[in-house]
Amino acid sequence: xxxxxYIKHLYEKEEKSLAEIARTTNLNYRTVCKYAxxxxxxxxxxxxxxxxx
Length: 53
Known about the structure:
Strand content: under 5%
Helix content: 40-55%
Structural class: mainly alpha
Distance between the termini: 40 Å
Shape: elongated
Number of strands: 0
Radius of gyration: 15 Å
Largest sheet: none
């Protein structure tokens, strides 16, 4: 969780570009995008796939 917060800080507070963050943290660009742009980190609810009776 600390890594996500650090990336969000770099993006929002220090106004670093996503590509620059990816280079400096040695993470995939898509991972950096996900971490920087996501606001809600609560677990996503999966749909109930059980058949209805």
